[in-house]
Automatic annotation (TrEMBL):
Organism placement in taxonomy: Bacteria, Pseudomonadati, Pseudomonadota, Gammaproteobacteria, Alteromonadales
Membrane found in the keyword field: yes
A Pfam family matched in the record: OmpA
Record flagged with keyword Membrane: yes
PROSITE patterns, alphabetized: OMPA_2
Organism annotation: Paraglaciecola agarilytica NO2
Membrane-traversing stretches: none
Name of this protein: OmpA/MotB protein
Domain OmpA-like positions: 442-567
Amino acid sequence: MFGEENQHITGAIRQDARQIVSDVFSEALKDRQDRDGSVKKVMTPLVDKSVEYSVANRKEQFVGYLYPIVGSVVRKSVTAFLTEFIERTNQLLENSLTIKGLTWRVKARQAGVPYANYVASQTFNYRVEQVFLIHRETGLLLNSLAYNQQSSADADLISSMLTAINDFVSDSFKPNADGNEQGLDIVKTDDFTLVLKAGPRAVLVAAVTGNMPQRVADQLQLTIEEIHTLYEGPLADFNGDTSAFADCDQQLTDCLVSELKDQATGKKSKPWMAWCILILLACGTSFYAYKLWLVQGYINQIQALNQEPGIMLIRAQRDGIQEVKLDILRDPDAQPINTWLEAHEIPAEAISLTEKRFLSLESQIIHARLRDLLSNYPGIALTSDGNTLTGELTQQQHHALSADLAQLPGVTDPKTLLAPIQISDKQTLELGAKDSAMTLIKLKISLINSTSLEFASNSTQLSPQAEQSLASLASHAKALLSLAGQAQLDVSFIIIGASDAKGSQSYNEVLSIKRAQTVRDTLQEYGLPSDKLNAIGIGIIDVPDAGNGARKVLFNVITTQASRSNG
């Protein structure tokens, strides 16, 4: 009446199967979930894969859905992270830095067990450390789950444990002579208690530390039965591919149970050590940041050194968190660096200073040099524009100041500076005075014309004796220029270089000119005007008996009547 294999009934049901199932689907899911909680465990991997697919293939829509709650999720995540971090830090400190932690380390060493296992034994009544799902027929590992997901178990420990379990399974589950299978429920090791629950096609093994209660074995039994129900097909058709069992983490998680020991005080310890360390780290970080900010402020202030006359900033950079390396060039007449730092409230101990000297041609520094020079001449002052001098000097002081100005770096026109100065003892040269002046002029000319400087063979360098003679000659030449000015005469100096007969004519002519130029340049350094010095070379002086005397520089003074415009 029902047909073979009930096809009449099944056919009628299939026609309205969708309507029948939809009428009771929600209620059936709820009833099954209330009965054994299996709906959640089955749906979890399906939902995970659906979300993974949406994230990979519909990113924009997925982000749009999540955007309104992202802020709340981030805040909660950060709060949870900080809370967990504090708790873990406190637990680490309590187990490592306290007397109790050190005592546990000693006892763990004495017992010959790992410190982590000993801590677990002292903290928990029991704890399931790891769960293994093993195929019964082949002994292959289908999946495993550890209590601490963030730490990876030791590979040797897992290998030896699985090998032992595989041997146990292979040897223990062979049928007896009467056809009944032998069973092995518990295996004890030094570190763990291994609890085995066998099903028709798979074996569930749990590694437990501490005193295991019966409810752990009961949970393993429920889980192995549930796995056989959900994965009956993959277990029956297993060919070595374990990917089908990757989603059974939810079932294995139910087996990772633990129970803390009761605390004697009944109060939860506060993570005061972790808070102290965090406060110290925060203080250290704040101090470091403050020092960096302070040193950077010094560097920013020091940049203003480039605006100071006579100071050139080469480098200002941070060295560590408390010091600034400072390299500068400073003119001797510029403001001292330590004075500048003090004025800007920069501590000298925070500065590592490297200072080198140079001559600045800035107007402020030139005026500073002038004021320093004029301190030797109380009657002279520098005008406000810095272009001229005012005051009154004697004739002798006037000549001395003129010579000093000619040697002062940066002063290019001493005559203009000296023009407004009054001469206090200026006299009109009478005939007798003129005769006396001319006598002195002739005497100076005679001294200069009789001076000669000798050079070494094939050399243009002045010897020490020649430098002394040249310094004396420069003094006479300055005096001659001063006397010539009073007598309204123009004076020029001819510097004549010569060589001996060794070498070719052309080479000796060049050598004689270079000797004359060396002497001319040195006289300019002594303050003689360049327009009064003329250097020439005459080449070879072919005097057989002259010897070294032919390698000379000679001098000749030419005087002419000064024009009226210069008088």
